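residues and backbone:
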Amino acid sequence: MADRLHIIGGGMAGSEAAWQAAQAGVPVTLHEMRPKVATFAHRTGSLAEMVCSNSFRSDDSEQNAVGLLHWEMRAAGGIIMETADAHRLPAGGALAVDRDPFAEAVTARLLAHPLISIEYEEITALPDSGNWIIATGPLTGSGLAQAIAAEAGQDSLAFFDAIAPIVHFDTIDMDTAWMQSRYDKGETEEERTAYINCPMNREQYEAFIDALLAAEKTGFKPGETAGYFDGCLPIEVMAERGRETLRFGPMKPVGLTNPHNPTEKAYAVVQLRRDNALGTLYNIVGFQTKMKYGAQKSVFAMIPGLQDASFARLGGIHRNTFINSPTLLDDQMRLKSKPHIRFAGQITGVEGYVESAAMGLLAGRMAVAEMTGTTLPPVPQTTAMGALIHHITGGAEAKTFQPMNVNFGLFPPVIAKGGRKGRQVRYKMYTDRAKADWQDWLGLREAAE
């Protein structure tokens, strides 16, 4: 077998790919340009750093596709999910993590693995030989991005990701705000009070929207166009789509009761989610923004409860590069023109921490199979993993290909006896089928018998 797997990029996908390969007995060299080469969004040199939200989203493996993806990654011995579980924070039904200890723990485990070596260097060209996985994520270095674009024979596709601000808890006015998860969701009191809520009446909301629309925004460089991913839209872009858009999105007031004024229903609510284990930092949920820093401070001061808030980090925006995977990759995630190179993570056109790590998990396993001369059966499309890889390697329309979160719309329909079922029943059918098929693919059920 070839002696070593090389992985470019130490984010979620690269870290997971390295772990999967090394656990299977294949030596790995992980190439990471940070901290020697910095990016706009990263703050540390840690692997698997979370640059936007600190949430892995829903952890419900019966009713939610991303929760199902969590389940599949846990079943496959994924380092990202195992470490996330060890550093989870109260977040209602979501899986949120203490971001710095999480990244530090992933880094420590990879550094300690006897089959993994890490080289801190920037790679700017496509390798001509060997076994490689490119998992450079949304902030691929310019040299490597240009090399990929030249090989693909087309311009790089890109959209823009925005980052939400983080607030110091002790500067939030808790006489105005209160702690409650929407619909009191969660099994413990800590989970049921995982979010801070800042209420607005109609007049305050309308004034906030006016200020948001008028605020000075970050411009784009010549030749750049603002193609945003819909799941990570800046709040001002949402507001531009209609004055009520935010009130039916991240500022929806449903499922909450203000204990300071229980008889008055808020017209809109801004939520903040805990960002670290100490509870000293909270991020403003869904408030990705491209407003300039000065504008952010004045606009966010209009939010009741945040009028005197101090920010640990203000929001920002960065370019997110991805390839046209349906055109460029085969069903083993290999570059068709250079099959010794695989791609994994957000650069393939999946969106989200979990989806990125999941594609790293599959790329690592596929590389191991090829290097060891074994046959890896196709990943069942009925699973969350299979639905995603099928989408990016052929299921999506190449002409309109855009980044995608995992969702049940990517799965083959379930056939229910007795006619159409309600959503909860249908989703449970999807997840039951997926879990059985994923275990079969992993060989766990056969081993258990």
Observations:
- The first strand starts at residue 5 and ends at 8.
- The chain has 14 helices and 17 strands.
- The chain has a mean pLDDT of 89.
